[in-house]
Amino acid sequence: MYGALDYTTFDINQKDVNFAEKINVAIQNKNFYFNTSYKGI
Q: What would the pLDDT profile of 1-41 be if each residue is shown by its tens digit?
């Protein structure tokens, strides 16, 4: 049995040739995994 927690935050202002302003690209990712069938080696 195992459990895992993953938390990711990514944020950037990217230049774009089609716009005068920069474009904001942001990702927030929160994951929790729990597996009771894992047997390992």
A: 778 999 999 999 999 888 889 999 999 999 998 888 877 77
Exposure on the CB side of residue 33, measured as CA atoms within 13 A = 10
Dist. CA 22–CA 30, nearest whole Å: 26
d(CA 37, CA 23): 44
CA distances, 11 to each of 16, 22, 34, 36 (Å): 16, 13, 28, 34
Alpha carbon distance 34, 40 (integer Å): 14
The pTM assigned to this predicted structure is 0.42
